[in-house]
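Field log, afternoon session.

UNIT: design team B
ACTIVITY: writing a sequence onto a fixed backbone
BACKBONE:
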C-alpha cells in the first residue's frame, strides 16, 4: 500500500491538521498517491468524526499544491476517456464528502495554490492564505488548453457568480497574488506568518462549528443570477459573442468548454454540475490542443527557465550598469526594462535631445502604471532616476553591459562599438540588438570578439516576453551565460540560437508573410488572406503585420540575403511574393502604414480605415484556394523553415523553437509552437510529411519536406 501523503495531527481541541506531503516529490500533484490518500483520509475523517471538531488542510511543501499531474494527462488519448471520467468523478466524490463531513474544514494556503491546488481549497469551507512573496492563486488550466475539472468551474461559479468566475478566474486563467485573490473573494483571510495562518484557521473552526458550503444550504442562489433569471438571460448572448471576438475563430476548445460548463452547470445542482464539468474536461484532456499547449507552456518553458541552454559552470551574473546605444524605439524600450529591473542605464544617442526623448518613453509607461495603481509614484521615480540620457561616449565608462540599438547598418554598428569599447569594463558583455545582421560579421568591429553576442529584443520591448540570444562563431560560453542571466534579470524568456542571417525568428516569420502575399498573387481576395491568418490563430493578420513593418523592410532583407547567397555561388529560390511586394512599392507607391498607404488605407492619424480597394484590380481573382490550404500554407511555411533551421544548426533545442515561435513571432499558441505543430499534426510527423508533399504538388516546391524530416517520418523518430 502506498503511504498516505496527508499527515494527520490532532490537537487537544479535536482539530485535525492534514499536511499534504507527497513523499519523494518536490511538490504535491494530483497523482495516484494523492487520489488514494484522499480517499483513505476522507474515510478516516468520517469514521472518527465524533472525536473531531474541525479540519485544517495545509502543506509541507513550499507551494500549497502544484495542481494536476501534467505528465500523466499528456499521455491521455481518446480511448482513455472512460477511465479518466471514472477517476475524476471518484476524486470529486471525495471532495464532496469532505465538504459534507459536517465539520468545518479550512484550507491553510501556505504558498502557491494553482489549478488542482486551488480546487482542493475550494472544497474547504474557508480559505486562509499566507501573504508570501511568489505565492499565486488561481485556475490557469485554460492556458494549457484545459479546464479546472476538479470542481473548479462549478465551485467558482457558485462562490463568485458566473460573470466574475469567468472573467476573473476561468477564461483567462489569471494567477493572482494573495492580496488580489482576497479582493476577488478567492480567499477569505490573509495572514503574514505560518503560525498566524494555523491560528486563524483554528479560530475560524471554533467560531463556525456548523460550517457548510453555501451551495449546500437550502435556498442557495448563485450570486448575480443564472440563465434562468430574465435579466441575466438577456445578457447571455453577449458571452459567446465576446468569446468569439476574443478567439477570432482560432481552434481553441478550452474557453468554449469552460463557458459551456459554467453556464450549463449553473442551471443544475452542484453534483450534476460537477459531472457536466467532468465531461467537458475529459473532452479537452484527451484532445491534441491541450497536449500541444502543455508541452509548450509548461514543459518547454520550465526547461528554458531552468537553464536548458545556459552553459554549465559559469558563475551567476547580475548586470549592474548597462549602456544602451541608440534611444530610438528599441533602445528606449531596452532602457525601460533594464531600469525597471534595478539596472542603472546610460542611454546614449547622437544628441541629448534624442536621448531625453528615449527616457521620456519610460516616463510615459511609468506614469500609466502609477495612474492604474500598479506602481507607487515613489517607485516610479526611482526607476526613472536610474536612466541617464547622454550624447557623450565618456559617460559609458565602466559599464558591465552594452546593448546597441542604433540603425540597422553594419558600418554604423561597428563604429559605435569602436567608440566605446575602450571605455567599458574590461569584461563587459557586448550585445547588439540587430534583427537581421549576422553577429559574427558585426563582431569584427570589436577587439574582444568572445564577449560579442546578439541580444535580439522584440517590439514593443516592455510587452514582448522573448529575448533571442544569438551566439556568434567566437562568442564564449561566459558571454552566453551572462546574456542568459541578463534575460532572466529583466524578466524575459531567453532562447538561444546560433548565428545566421535572420537568426531563427526573423527568418521564420518572413516565410509566413511571404505565403500570405503569395496568396494575393494567386488572386485570393486580401480579406480572405487576413481571415485565414486570424482563424489559424495568428494574433495579427499577415497583411496588417506587413503594413506595420513597412514593405521596404522585407525587400531590403531579401536583397541583402540574395546578394549574400549569390556571392556564395548558390542559386536564389525566387518566391511568388517578391513580385507583389515590388509592385506595391514601385508601381502603387504603397509602402505600409508609416507612409500612409499599404495593403490597407489609413486616415490622417495613421488609423487603418480598411483594405485598399485597388488590390482587387492589381491582383485579379483567379482559381480559388481552399480555406484550409490557405491556413496550412502559412503554418507549414513556418514549420518547414524551422526544420531547415535545425538542419543548419541555427536552432539548438525544440523548446527554444516552440517558445521562440509563440512568444516572438506569434505562431498560434494552440499548436504548442512550430515543432510541436509538426509532432502533433494528425498522423504525427508522417502525416505532416504527406500533407507537405500534397501542398508541394499543388503550390510549389517550397513545401517539399526536407530530407531530415522525411527520415524522421520513416524511422518513426521525434525531434530531440
Ligand atoms: P530607431 O530608428 O527607432 O532608433 C535608432 C536610434 O539610433 C535613433 O534614435 C538614432 O538617433 C540612434 N543613433 C544613430 N546613430 C547613432 C550613434 N552613432 N550613436 C548613438 N545613437 C545613434 O530604430 P529601432 O527600431 O529602435 O531599431 C534599432 C535596432 O534594433 C536596429 O538594428 C533594428 O534592426 C533592431 N530591431 C528593431 C526592431 C523593431 O521592431 N523596430 C525589432 C528588433 C530589433
Amino acid at each position: 500500500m502506498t503511504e498516505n501523503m496527508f499527515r494527520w495531527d490532532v490537537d487537544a481541541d479535536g482539530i485535525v491538521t492534514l499536511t499534504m506531503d507527497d513523499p519523494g516529490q518536490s511538490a504535491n500533484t494530483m497523482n495516484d498517491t494523492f487520489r488514494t490518500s484522499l480517499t483513505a483520509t476522507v474515510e478516516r475523517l468520517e469514521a472518527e468524526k465524533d472525536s473531531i471538531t474541525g479540519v485544517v488542510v495545509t502543506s509541507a511543501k513550499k507551494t500549497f499544491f502544484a495542481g494536476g499531474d501534467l505528465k500523466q494527462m499528456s499521455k491521455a488519448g481518446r480511448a482513455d476517456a472512460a477511465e479518466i471520467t471514472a477517476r475524476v468523478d471518484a476524486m470529486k466524490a471525495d471532495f464532496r464528502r469532505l465538504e459534507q463531513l459536517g465539520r468545518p474544514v479550512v484550507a491553510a494556503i501556505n504558498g502557491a495554490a494553482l489549478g488542482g491546488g486551488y480546487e482542493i481549497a475550494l472544497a474547504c469551507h474557508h480559505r486562509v492564505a499566507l501573504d508570501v512573496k511568489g505565492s499565486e492563486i488561481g485556475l490557469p488550466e485554460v492556458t494549457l488548453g484545459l479546464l479546472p475539472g476538479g470542481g473548479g468551474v462549478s465551485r467558482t461559479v457558485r462562490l463568485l457568480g458566473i460573470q466574475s468566475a469567468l472573467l476573473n478566474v476561468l477564461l483567462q486563467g489569471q494567477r493572482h497574488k494573495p492580496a488580489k485573490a482576497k479582493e476577488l473573494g478567492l480567499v477569505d483571510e490573509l495572514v503574514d506568518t505560518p503560525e498566524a495562518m494555523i491560528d486563524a484557521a483554528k479560530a475560524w473552526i471554533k467560531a463556525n462549528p456548523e460550517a457548510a458550503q453555501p451551495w449546500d444550504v437550502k435556498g442557495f442562489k448563485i450570486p448575480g443570477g443564472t440563465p434562468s433569471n430574465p435579466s441575466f438571460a438577456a445578457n447571455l448572448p453577449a458571452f459567446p459573442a465576446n468569446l468569439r471576438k476574443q478567439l477570432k475563430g482560432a481552434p481553441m476548445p478550452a474557453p468554449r468548454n469552460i463557458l459551456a460548463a459554467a453556464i450549463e452547470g449553473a442551471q443544475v445542482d452542484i453534483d450534476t454540475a460537477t459531472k457536466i464539468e467532468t465531461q467537458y474536461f475529459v473532452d479537452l484532456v484527451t484532445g491534441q490542443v491541450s497536449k500541444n499547449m502543455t508541452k509548450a507552456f509548461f514543459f518547454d518553458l520550465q526547461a528554458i527557465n531552468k537553464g536548458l541552454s545556459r552553459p554549465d559552470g559559469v558563475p551567476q551574473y547580475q548586470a549592474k550598469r548597462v549602456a544602451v546605444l541608440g534611444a530610438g524605439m528599441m533602445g528606449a524600450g531596452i532602457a525601460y526594462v533594464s531600469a525597471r529591473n534595478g539596472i542603472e542605464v546610460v542611454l546614449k544617442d547622437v544628441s541629448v535631445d534624442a536621448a531625453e526623448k528615449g527616457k521620456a518613453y519610460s516616463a510615459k509607461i511609468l506614469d500609466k502604471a502609477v495612474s492604474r495603481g500598479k506602481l507607487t509614484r515613489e517607485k516610479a521615480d526611482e526607476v526613472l532616476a536610474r536612466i541617464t540620457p547622454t550624447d557623450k561616449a565618456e559617460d559609458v565608462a565602466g559599464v558591465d553591459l552594452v546593448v546597441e540599438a542604433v540603425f540597422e547598418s553594419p558600418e554604423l554598428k561597428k563604429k559605435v562599438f569602436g567608440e566605446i569599447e575602450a571605455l567599458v569594463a574590461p569584461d563587459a558583455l557586448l550585445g547588439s540588438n540587430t534583427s537581421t545582421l549576422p553577429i559574427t560579421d558585426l563582431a569584427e568591429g570589436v577587439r574582444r570578439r568572445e564577449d560579442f553576442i546578439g541580444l535580439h529584443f522584440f517590439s514593443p520591448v516592455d510587452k514582448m516576453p522573448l529575448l533571442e540570444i544569438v551566439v556568434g562563431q567566437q562568442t564564449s560560453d561566459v558571454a552566453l551565460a551572462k546574456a542568459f542571466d541578463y534575460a532572466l534579470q529583466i524578466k524575459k524568456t531567453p532562447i538561444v540560437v546560433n548565428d545566421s542571417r535572420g537568426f531563427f525568428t526573423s527568418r521564420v516569420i518572413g516565410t509566413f508573410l511571404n505565403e500570405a502575399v503569395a496568396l494575393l498573387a494567386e488572386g485570393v481576395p486580401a480579406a480572405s488572406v487576413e481571415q485565414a491568418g486570424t482563424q489559424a490563430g495568428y494574433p495579427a493578420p499577415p497583411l496588417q503585420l506587413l503594413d506595420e513593418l513597412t514593405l521596404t523592410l522585407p525587400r531590403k532583407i531579401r536583397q541583402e540575403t540574395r546578394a549574400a547567397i549569390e556571392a556564395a555561388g548558390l542559386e536564389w529560390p525566387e518566391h511568388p511574393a517578391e513580385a507583389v511586394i515590388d509592385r506595391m512599392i514601385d508601381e502603387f507607391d504603397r509602402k505600409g502604414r508609416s507612409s500612409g498607404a499599404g495593403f490597407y488605407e489609413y486616415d490622417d492619424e495613421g488609423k487603418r480605415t480598411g483594405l485598399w480597394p485597388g488590390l482587387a484590380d492589381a491582383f485579379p481573382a483567379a482559381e480559388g484556394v481552399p480555406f484550409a490550404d490557405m491556413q496550412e500554407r502559412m503554418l507549414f511555411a513556418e514549420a518547414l523553415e524551422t526544420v531547415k533551421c535545425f538542419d543548419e544548426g541555427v536552432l539548438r533545442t525544440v523548446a527554444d523553437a516552440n517558445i521562440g515561435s509563440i512568444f516572438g513571432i506569434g505562431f498560434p499558441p494552440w499548436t504548442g509552437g512550430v515543432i510541436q505543430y509538426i509532432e502533433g499534426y494528425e498522423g504525427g510527423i508522417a502525416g505532416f510529411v504527406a500533407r507537405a508533399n500534397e501542398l508541394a504538388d499543388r503550390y510549389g516546391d517550397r513545401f517539399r519536406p526536407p530530407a531530415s524530416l522525411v527520415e524522421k517520418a520513416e524511422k518513426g523518430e521525434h525531434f530531440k
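LOG NOTE: DSSP finds 30 helices and 20 strands in the chain.
NEXT ACTIVITY: expression trials, pending approval
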